[in-house]
Write a structure and sequence with these properties.
Length: 271
């Protein structure tokens, strides 16, 4: 942070707290983006939730910068705010490509429609690596190196996106395996029916003394039984592989859910 931003931050007596000490000051759970904190208006305080999961290192720093920007936005003069709002809105409408950020802003439009641009001001400045030159110039009054803040965001956000990508890849793999298992099971029924019919025919030939026909039919029958048994073995192995992939996939999905819960207001304790 620049000296200006540092003063804004510390004039709000920032606190890093957890449990009810946090929710008593941020009863709504704070932000809806990938930070947990709140700014009490008119320099009433900045509260940052203590995140202990090392996979989420950087969340506290980004949250601190995010809440500082709320304090900065509130201090803008009317003309400055109009200018900044125009830049933020223009970028949102014409330049923003990050779907996660788009979804976050969409959520604010529903829950806090009057504060959407204020939230854009904090989100864009701390979570997006590249911004139009006018916005970069504006944020330079608060950050000597904004890329460090955006880097923190990218680092812990990757903990989510990497797992989401892995789950999607496993889901695609499982879909293909499930289709193959279904195909094998259908084919096994067809082969079993053919084997049963051939077996009855051989038994009838042997019972009626048609030994030449019986003997000539046995090799083909045995080969069909071998193919059938191999198909059953292959299908059993594929089912075992499928179950192993499901276990791995669910483990990764659980990790992603746990990380999400770490930054979810719904996981915070009651006051």
């Amino acid at each position: 942070m620049t000296d200006t931003a540092t003063r804004l931050f510390y004039v709000n007596h920032p606190n890093i707290t957890a449990g009810s000490a946090f929710t008593s000051n941020c009863p709504s759970g704070g932000e809806k983006t990938v930070v947990l904190g709140c700014y009490i208006g008119h320099d009433g305080g900045i509260y940052v939730y203590k995140v202990t999961d090392t996979r989420l290192n950087g969340v506290e720093q980004v949250t601190a910068a995010h809440e500082m920007l709320h304090a900065a936005y509130q201090r803008l003069s009317g003309s400055e705010r109009s200018s900044v709002d125009a830049m933020l809105t223009s970028y949102y409408q014409h330049g923003l490509t990050d779907q996660r950020v788009k979804d976050t802003i969409a959520a604010y439009k529903i829950s806090e429609p009057k504060d959407v641009v204020n939230e854009m001001h904090s989100i864009f400045g701390t979570e997006l690596a590249e911004l139009p030159a006018p916005l970069e110039s504006y944020y330079a009054r608060y950050f000597t190196d904004r890329s460090k803040v955006a880097g923190f965001t990218a680092s812990y956000q990757a903990e989510f996106t990497t797992r989401q990508t892995q789950v999607a890849e496993y889901d695609a793999q499982l879909k293909g395996m499930k289709q193959q298992i279904s195909t094998n099971e259908t084919e096994a029924k067809v082969q079993k029916s053919a084997i049963d019919a051939a077996g009855k025919q051989l038994e009838a030939q042997r019972a009626s003394g048609q030994f030449t026909a019986y003997n000539s039919g046995v090799p083909a029958f045995n080969a069909s039984v071998d193919r059938y048994n191999q198909l059953l073995t292959d299908t059993k192995n594929l089912i075992n592989q499928y179950n192993a992939v499901v276990e791995t996939r669910n483990k990764i999905a659980l990790e992603e859910q746990q990380l999400t819960a770490e930054l979810s207001a719904s996981s915070l304790p009651a006051n």
